[in-house]
């Protein structure tokens, strides 16, 4: 059976950016995820609290230069940690970076299309 976990508006602070001030000071980050996987029985479920914590910790410890790098790395990490995941859509936002609007990026990933990384 196909299932989908929705993680909406996971809020935390992290260093993401290429400008000097973005490399020195944490800023607000908001991340949402739509995670699709095959559920067969009680041994194949995905703990949504575990995946939310993993995503938050990953972004906070890696200090990415670009949002694109963050999205790709989070996707690869999710695929590596959770073999049941078949695809995911990630949306990351830096809500306070511009005064006149919120800025974000969205990307879709499939297991076979995402380059795996070593943890």
TrEMBL record:
It catalyses: 7,8-dihydroneopterin = 6-hydroxymethyl-7,8-dihydropterin + glycolaldehyde. The keyword Repressor does not apply. Gene3D superfamilies: 3.30.1130.10. Residues 5-107 form the Dihydroneopterin aldolase/epimerase domain. GO terms for molecular function: dihydroneopterin aldolase activity. GO terms for biological process: folic acid biosynthetic process. Keywords: Folate biosynthesis, Lyase. Pathway: Cofactor biosynthesis; tetrahydrofolate biosynthesis; 2-amino-4-hydroxy-6-hydroxymethyl-7,8-dihydropteridine diphosphate from 7,8-dihydroneopterin triphosphate: step 3/4. PANTHER family: DIHYDRONEOPTERIN ALDOLASE 1-RELATED. Belongs to the DHNA family. This is dihydroneopterin aldolase. It comes from Helicobacter trogontum.
């Amino acid at each position: 059976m196909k299932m989908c976990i929705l993680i909406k508006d996971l809020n935390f602070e992290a260093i993401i950016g290429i400008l000097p001030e973005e490399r020195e000071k944490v800023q607000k980050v908001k991340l949402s995820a739509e995670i699709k996987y095959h559920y067969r029985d009680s041994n194949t479920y995905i703990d949504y609290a575990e995946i939310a914590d993993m995503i938050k910790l990953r972004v906070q410890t890696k200090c990415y230069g670009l949002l694109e790098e963050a999205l790709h790395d989070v996707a690869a990490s999710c695929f590596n940690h959770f073999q049941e995941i078949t695809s995911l859509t990630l949306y990351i936002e830096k809500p306070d970076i511009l005064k006149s609007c919120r800025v974000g990026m969205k990307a879709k990933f499939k297991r076979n299309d995402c380059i795996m990384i070593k943890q």
